[in-house]
Every structure is written in C-alpha cells, then in structure tokens.
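On clarity, I found the account of how folds are encoded harder to follow than it need be. What matters is that the chain and its backbone geometry are given together, residue for residue. I therefore recommend that a typical entry be quoted early in the introduction. An entry of this sort, consisting of the sequence and the corresponding backbone structure tokens, reads as follows:
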Amino acid sequence: MWNPSRTLPIVVATLFGGLASGQCVSTFDLGSDTSLCAGQSVTLTAPAGFQSYLWTTGSTGTAISVSTAGTYGCTVTEIGAGNNVITNGDFSAGATGFTSDYVPGTGGAYGLLSLQSTYAVSTSPSLVHNNFASFGDHTTGSGNMLVVNGSDIVGQTIWCQTVSVLPNTTYAFSAWLASAVSSSPAQLSFTVDGVSIGNLNASSTTGLWLNFYNLWNSGASTTVTLCITNLNTAQSGNDFAIDDILFTPYCTYTDEVLVTYFAYPEPDLGPDTTYCEDVTIALDPQWPSADAFAWQDGSAAASFTPAASGIYWVDVTENGCTTRDSILVTELPLPVANIGPDLQRCAGDVEVLNAAYPGSTYMWHDGSTAPTWTVTDAGTYWVTVDLAGCLDRDTVIFTYYPLPVVDLGADTTICEADDLLFDVTRPGGSYSWEDGSTFPSRSTNGAGVYWVIVEENNCYTTDSLELGIIPLPEVDLGPDHLLCAGSVEELVAEGPNYTYLWDDGSTGPSILIDGPDVYSVTVTNVCGTDVDSVTIGLDYCDCPVYVPNTFTRDGDGINEDFLPRFTCPNESYTLRIFDRWGREQWMTTDPFMAWDGGTLASGVYAWTVEYVPDSDILTGRRVAKGHVLLLR
C-alpha cells in the first residue's frame, strides 16, 4: 500500500494556454512493512508498468530478494499516462496537426508516394506505393501511420509541432519507426527547439517497429518546437513509416519497506518419554511467550495431554516465526495382578498364588519376590506386580476350616443274622454314602466295603470300613443211603471256623464209618449251631449202577443224553433230576428213558436213582445219587 510519508513523486505538467493541463498522478506502493524469521528471505516486488526501476541495493529489476533486516526503497519512472502534449501523435485524425518540409503525395507510376520528399497517412505502406511493404500500424495493427518517401535533400524536416510545456519539468520524447523497404533504412534525428536529443536508425526488416525514447527538461521554457529529421539522403530506398509520437511529462515515484527479522522460538517437549496407562501427563513446549500453539490434532492450547502411544508435535509461533518440536510418547500397559478371589480352604490344603505377568517383578506381603506364593493357613495375602515401573496390586483373603471328624471304625465282621449301625452325625454336616443315601446314620447286614463322605464348610472327610459276614453254621451229611458190606465211608461236616461234636464224641471235621447206623454231628461257630444226621443201611453191592458225569446236547449224535446203566435188571426204578436249589426238574420210572436236558440251560444238576434189583439173594430198595454237567 502506498505510504505518503515515504513516497516522493516529482510532479511535471504541460501548459496549454497558460493553464496546467497535466501532472504525475500514478501511485507507487511496495506494500506493507514486513517481518521475517532468521534465515528466511523475501522478494520485494515493485508494481509493473513503469519504465525504469532503481532499488537502494542498486538493482534495476522489478524485484529484489532480501535476507537481512533494513529499510529497502525503490524509485520508478514513467511517462505521464494520458498527458501527451502532442496533437494527433497517432495520426488518427489524418495528416493534420504538424508541419513538414515534405509535401503530401501527388501520385505517379508507383502510387500516391511515387516521388521523394512526400508523405501520406495510411493504414499500410503498400496502399500508397506499389513497392512498399504491407504491415499495420504500431498500436493496433489496423490504425493510421505516417508513410514517408525519404528526401535526398539534407536538413528537410519530416514532422514538426510546437507545444506548450511546464517550466522545470522533465519530458519524455518517444516515437516509433519502421522501414517500408529493406534497402537504405532511414536515420532519424529528434530535436527540441533545433537541439538534437537523439537519433534512431530504422531496421532493414520491413514492418519491424523500433522505439525512440529520450528525456528532456524544460528549464525556463514554456513553449518548444519538436521536429523529426531524416539524416539519410539516399535516393534509392530510404522509405519508412512513423507512428505514436509522444511528448509527455516524465514522472518519478519512490517507496520504502521496512524489513525486520525475528529469531525462531525454541520449544522443547523434552526427551522421548514413557508413562503408565493409569497416569496422565501433560506435554509443555516450554515457551510461554509464544503467540500461538498448533498441536498435531489441531488444538491450540499451551499444553497437550496424550491419550495413547504415538509421536506428538507442536508448532510454536512467535512474531510470525514458527518452530516445531516432537516427542515420542510410549504408553506402558499396566500389569495385571490377579491372584484370584477370596477363598475358603480346609485344614491341610495348599494353594499356590500365581501372580506371573510377562516381564514383571513382584513384591509379596512378606517381602518375597518370586512370581508365586504358597498359602497353607488363613490370612490376608497381597502382591504388587511391577512392569517397567507400572504397578498393580491384588489382595486375597484365605479362611481355613477344620476337616470334619469321621470314624466308621476298624474293619470288622458280624454274623449274617445281625445288623451293624453306622452313625457319623456332625453339626452342620452333609453326608454321602456309597449307596447314594444322605442320612447321617444307617444300618447294614451285608458284606462289603462301606464308605461315607462328610462335608462341613466345603471341607470333606472320607472314611471306609470293610464288613465281613460270618454265615450261620450249616452241616449236611447227605441223604440216607446204603453202604456196601465191608466198605468204609467218610462222613464230612467241615466248615470255616467250625467246632464239631459227633454222636460218638469225636470233634474232628469228619469221621469214618464201616457199618449201618444213624450218625449225627453238631457243628458250632461264633454265630450259632447246626445239627444233621444220616441213616446208613447195609448193601451187598451185587448190582452196581454206572452213571456218566457229563453229556453234551449239541446235536453231534455223540453223548447226547444222560442215562444210568445197570448190571442187573430192576424190579422198580425211579430217576430224578434236581437244580442247584433242590427243585425237581425231571423224573422217570422207565429204566430205558434217557434225560436229554429238555430246555434247561447248561450247568451242573443233581440226580438220584432209587431202584430194587431183581435178585434172589439180596433184596431191598437202594439209592444212588450224584451230579451231572449238562453242556450245550
């Protein structure tokens, strides 16, 4: 923006009829004073369109680059726009407003300008002479220009005009020249009141417009005559066009800019840091005089609280200078201290508390530092887990209860007719027996292993007892039967832990008999007494019977049935088959009918044969018995 206190324009004017009709009216502004940061540079640019530029650095360009503090100024010059004192300088009004030693074209073999020392106003040289080049005027390419056929007479003026000027004012004299033919280009001289202020030679290239420009100061003058003269007097060639003649006040403007340098701020977020996730930290750039803060998330506070691991940065601005600092913040996870819930345990239980967490160290309530601690008694136990300085603590309370007292007694035996009572009643206890019952007491009379689990406060005690059953004594001397004359037979009454008393007074488990009689025995154990007797008859064994002990009912035709065999005929005969419980399963009185097992399953079966042999010597009913194995 233009600052009047630093702009010193030189004002010039042109007088018409004694009145000031023009002056320097442009504005020149280098812009506002500026400030830079250390090490920066700035380009100061002057507005375009002026004819000359001169900076305080000596530069003559439109812009300079500045990298140090100071005041920088620029002086520019221009031809006063709109203040041309020349009349019809662009010949838009035709061949008027000027005087000349040349005369208007009169025509001829080549056109209007066939003769030397003639001129005409046209939009193209080719329109006024057949051999002149075709091109447009300097300004628009379609306007008027002054076309001249040069003279071979020395000193003839081409164009003159008298103008009013302001005293002590610098004027710029400007005109444009182009060759109409390429040979012998024109050499123009520009004079003010007969004094030359410069020359301009045309180019041999037709239609190429060249500019004449020079300055002149009016001094005390108020009126001057401006003339253009051709110094070239060649008869051949020396043909040209003139356009846009200008004589105008020459203006000078100056402006300055103050450039100030500031040091960069020096924010410091500190070294890269870590923090535990349960801790809040604030990042402070340590530059309280800053004008502005800009954090990586767009916030503008003087400090910042990170919420997670990452790289954080801040731009600190002071006096327009900005510096960034960054920091790597690592959020460390808290370790997890977890040694479980409060627990109830039973006397004798051992519990291992495990606080292991990868990469951590440990401190228990008793000062120990292992990752585990073994609990054997009631109490409060705690551990602190330390992971790179991040801590977590857990506490657990243990309550111990005594084991319930349970005693079923020692393993024992009872008689099969007796009952054994178990009673494990406990205050507040619950019970689980091997048979699924849940009462505190029970009775039993069967052999086996009995056990119970008693629970109090989730503490369990188990006890067991193996119970043996002593059966009642039982003796069986067998059925009454015959004893072959002269034979000896053993009667056996043996049983576990029995005592014996035979009718003859003997006390062994068996006796030997050799004749007919009634024999009896009394057996005794801790549970009682049993008595049995057998009647033994005399048999002369003159008709023995042969009985198989096994037969197979498998359809192979071999040993398929059961049939006793006799060595003599019988007057009577009865065969009976019994199961293991003494129940009769089959009977026949036909000595030739065999037992095939019927539908009975494989197993051992008892049999008896009652028969009366057909004998004249020995008479009487006889009995034989035994066991047979049926296989299918």
Notes: The CA atoms of residues 117 and 301 lie 85 Å apart. The radius of gyration is 74 Å.
